[in-house]
Specification:
The chain has about 90 residues and is mainly beta. The protein has one helix spanning about 75-80; strands spanning about 5-15, 20-25, 30-35, 55-65, 65-75. β1 (about 5-15) and β2 (about 20-25) form a beta hairpin. The relative contact order is 0.25.
Length: about 90
């Protein structure tokens, strides 16, 4: 998925909010918190995240109450890999 992305750490899960369950995460890249819905249209994993888990958030929107991500999933090893450099010429 191509969009502006951030890595964040889940701080809390809020069950049954006004618009359904959601998570609150913090991101050093944003210098603050970002929320995301745990509904199927936003959270793309089978199970909800737990506090302390790193997540990959995308399609961020600035709302009156702060940042909201419109796409989220768990952070994977492939998200952190740098392309291997070859010493061959």
């Amino acid at each position: 998925m191509k969009c502006n992305t951030v890595k964040a750490i889940v701080q809390a899960i809020v069950p049954g909010g006004k618009h359904g369950s959601y998570a609150v995460a913090t991101s050093d890249e944003l210098g603050g918190s970002v929320t995301f819905s745990l509904g199927k249209d936003v959270w793309h994993e089978l199970a909800d995240p737990n506090p302390g888990v790193q997540v990959f958030l995308c399609d961020l929107q600035k709302k009156r109450a702060g940042w909201r991500a419109m796409y989220g999933r768990l952070l994977r090893p492939s998200d952190e890999r740098q392309p291997a450099r070859s010493n061959k010429q």
